[in-house]
Amino acid sequence: MKKSIFSFLGIFSIFGVSQAVPMIEGEVSAGYIQQKPSGWVQYKGDQVDVKDDLKIGDEDSYFFRAKLEHPVPLLPNIAFQYVKMDFSGTGRITKSFRYGNKVVTVGDTVYSNIKMDHYDVTLFYNLPFVGLATAGILDIEFGLNVRVLDFKANVKTETSAIDETASVTAPIPMIYGAIEISPISLLSIKAEGKGVAYNGNSYYDLSGELRIKPITIPLAVDFFIGLGYKYERLKIDDIDDVSTDIKIKQPYVTAGLLF
Length: 259
Prior knowledge:
This protein is mainly beta.
């Protein structure tokens, strides 16, 4: 919870900087998200289905975002994002499987947790002259994103007293690209992608969002609400004895300020 508070305060400190320095643009926002995982995880044993075997369910969560754009040539713009992703499940096992070199047997009760919190720092540029050539209707961004992923998959059982945790924490560099179309001043559509693939491992994060800007606040600040959809897929091929292929579908709503 403390990490979430610090993320929130950091995001709104950016808003304060924007008001103090002229020609700075950006956004601060927060959102509610439904996370629907599927796939499998493997730790020194069998591939275990997160739904059927670990009884992992859907979760409601939240995220924070901030973006800062400036007029300094060659210096990249910067964006931050924090997404809380923590799944849990409880149920009776219907087939035996090996996890962490221990066997979970049929009939045992399993308590499972998968954590995939992540922090993003994005350095990006706006494609030159696109906004000017399209009278502000089109904006294209490209750059590099670094995602710090804290992945943990814990399995506990009631009868056999198993308590095994697969864990990987690592910074992941990803290519970043986004396109935003604003046909009218009160409406915009944005598509965004982050991704990387190497040595059998891959991570993709794709999203689309419809934004409505119904209110303009004094000091050239716009309030917006958004409706969007995210899709993430994480594939790990034997890193620290952990392999996984997890897909997460995520409809969301968000609100924030554009300045």
